[in-house]
Design brief:
The complex is a heterodimer.
Chain A (H helix, E strand, L loop, with lengths): L10 H29 L2 E3 L5 E3 L3 H7 L2 H33 L6 H13 L2 H12 L5 H8 L16 H26 L3 H9 L4 H12 L1 H16 L3 H6 L11 H11 L3 H29 L2
Antiparallel strand pairs in A: 1-2
Helix pairs in contact in A: 1-13, 3-7, 3-10, 4-7, 10-13, 12-13
Chain B lengths: L2 H32 L4 H6 L11 H8 L3 H32 L5 H10 L9 H10 L10 H22 L3 H8 L4 H12 L1 H17 L2 H6 L8 H11 L4 H21 L1 H14 L1
Helix pairs in contact in B: 3-13, 4-7, 4-10, 4-12, 5-7, 7-10, 8-9, 10-14, 12-13, 13-14
The chains are: A mainly alpha, B mainly alpha.
Family (chain A): Belongs to the binding-protein-dependent transport system permease family.
Protein name (chain A): Sugar ABC transporter permease
Main location (chain A): membrane
Chain lengths: 295, 277
């Protein structure tokens, strides 16, 4: 900051510049957070009757199998995304930095395309890929003679979470790829030349130079991955609606169903508070673990 | 390593990358050509190319599926989201970047925490709040949450950029008699053009693709945005896959065109917060 009294606008102009954002932000973020906490203490179905029940909703939440099942589903998506998206993106970015790969620009451009698409379209598209009778996946298995592998990908409760996670992982590989490529390009090439003089080969260069120098980028990527996947909703809503049963229900879906299908707005708010606490908690924990590794 | 093994490794890496790229682009190509098939043709063989490409599915998607209405709703909401996010974000970031004032740190911190709060957790209180204020189900309803949730990113982007712009230019303009508003609009704003173009793309894509708030805050069929219209489309005309595919193409086509035209800017925009933050 470089405070200069010469260019400082008049008090009224100053406020006109500053206030619209603050008011809008308060009205859309701060007030709703407080409202969610307030409603979470009530039994309320949206009508004029609101019954204060103190911490009862939280007592229910702690033993609510459906909520924790949804949380575990979110964790599963986070787990596969951290390894799938960040892992695959890291491998691809190493390949794209090497000299042997052709058509680098093409790969970079194409792998990023799914990132910009609507998750709703991705959900429908993968719904068609997974379709039991007319789906592309089963068609492919049939064509290459693996009839026995054909499965009802979205209708099997034991399988469905893996089926809905694949498109989520697939969609955002390009996002982490671009982050890693940007970070790798900023590594000074002299570091590599020195290492080569010392006899470091391909794998060793990656292990002892690229990986350590990228550690802060990887930590940011993991944080974004956690934050992004705790709000997974769109594509699963479209593919399965959380089903069959509650086998692919994630936290956002559970809050939506409770509030807008069962009209339990009080308890729905309690779930919302739960989502916020768990998400922010997970991000803070990941930061603390990442921070300790720094030394 | 022998030369032959090296060569095989090189080919392997290239094949692997082509397989990945193909997996990213083939579903879209399939969607595009399948949308030109008739239902019977699609049911006969889902992978084959259309023998006689025809646009009936698109005509039906617009006529029966109301995709045109949804398209203009999305365009309207996205346009105003982009304009207001950039204006509000720019002015706020300018003040935060340039001047000392009470609560400055708290205000900046408040905007930054906006990036960490899981927005989906706020669906219910925002629904209740909008209901109380009579803001549900209006043409402008979605602009409020979209602008607000983008403000964190906008303030962050602009603040970082304005800090790098030398203050001397503004002081010189001031000495020459330019009013502060004039200086900000005529000098600082145009200097921010590189960030503004990134921001336009980022906020446009976000608003165009957003789903949960559109689902909860809009009830009237004639006010729905494209992603919501698509889910409704699916429910009402089930099993007509080719029409559904045409509707999906209508949703993604503008995005893919913008992306291919400004690939580098889009990538910068989508990853701006991540790389710098």
């Amino acid at each position: 900051m470089n405070d200069s009294s010469a260019i400082r606008p008049k008090r009224i102009t100053f406020l006109i510049y500053l206030l619209p954002s603050i008011i809008l932000f308060a009205f859309m973020v701060l007030v709703p957070v407080l409202l969610a906490v307030r409603y979470s203490f009530f039994k309320w179905s949206g009508g004029p009757k609101m019954e204060f029940i103190g911490l009862d909703n939280y007592k229910v939440l702690i033993t609510d199998g459906n909520f924790w099942n949804a949380f575990v589903n979110n964790l599963l998506i986070v787990f596969f995304s951290v390894f799938g998206q960040i892992g695959i993106a890291f491998v691809i970015s190493i390949f794209l930095m090497s000299k042997v790969v052709k058509w680098k620009g093409f790969h970079r451009t194409v792998i990023f395309i799914p990132v910009v698409l609507s998750s709703v379209v991705i959900g429908f598209l993968w719904g068609m890929i997974y379709n039991q009778d007319a789906g592309m996946l089963n068609w492919m298995l049939r064509t290459i003679g693996l009839e026995s592998w054909i499965k009802p990908w979205l209708d099997d409760p034991n399988l469905v979470m893996y089926s809905v996670t694949v498109p989520i992982v697939w969609q955002y590989i390009g996002f982490y790829l671009i982050i890693f490529l940007a970070a790798m390009q900023s590594i000074n090439s002299e570091v590599y030349e020195m290492a080569e003089l010392d006899g470091a080969t391909g794998f060793k260069k990656m292990r002892y130079i690229t990986l350590p120098l990228l550690s802060s980028t990887i930590k940011i990527a993991i944080m974004l991955c956690i934050a992004g996947n705790m709000k997974a909703f769109d594509s699963i809503f479209v593919m399965t609606g959380g089903g069959p049963g509650s086998s692919s229900t994630v936290m956002a879906q559970y809050a939506y169903d409770t509030s807008f299908k069962s009209y339990k707005l009080g308890y729905g708010s309690t779930i919302s508070v739960g989502i916020m606490v768990l998400s922010v908690g997970l991000i803070i924990i990941s930061r603390m673990i990442g921070g300790r590794n720094r030394d | 390593m022998t030369k032959a093994a090296n060569r095989i490794g090189q080919i392997g890496v290239n094949v692997f990358l082509f397989a990945i790229s193909l997996s990213c682009i083939f579903p879209l190509i399939w969607m595009l050509y399948s949308s030109l098939k008739t239902s019977q043709e699609f049911n006969l063989n889902i992978m084959s190319l259309p023998s006689n490409p025809q646009f009936q599915n698109y005509i039906d998607a617009f006529k029966i599926g109301k995709m045109g209405t949804y398209f203009w709703n999305s365009a309207f909401v996205s346009l105003f989201t982009v304009v207001f996010t950039i204006l509000f974000g720019f002015f706020t970031a300018y003040i935060i970047a340039r001047f000392k004032f009470p609560f400055r740190g708290i205000i900046y911190f408040m905007f930054l925490t906006g990036m960490l709060i899981p927005i989906h957790g706020l669906l219910i209180p925002i629904f209740v709040e909008f209901k109380a204020l009579g803001l549900l189900d209006k043409k402008i309803t979605l602009i409020f949450p979209y602008v607000a949730f983008n403000l964190s990113m906008a303030v962050f982007l602009f603040e970082n950029f304005i800090k790098t712009v030398p203050i001397d230019v503004e002081e010189a303009a001031c000495i020459d008699g330019s009013s502060s508003t004039n200086t900000v609009m005529r000098i600082v704003f145009p200097l921010c053009l590189p960030v503004i173009s990134t921001a336009i793309i980022l906020f446009f894509l976000g608003a165009w693709n957003e789903f949960p708030f559109g689902l909860v805050l809009i009830k009237s069929p004639e006010l729905r945005t494209l992603p919501i219209g698509l889910t409704n489309f699916n429910g009402q005309y089930t099993a007509n896959y080719t029409q559904m595919l045409a509707a999906m193409v209508i949703v993604v086509l503008p995005v893919v065109v913008v992306y291919l035209a400004f690939a580098k800017k889009v990538m910068q925009g989508m990853t701006a917060g991540a790389v710098k933050g």
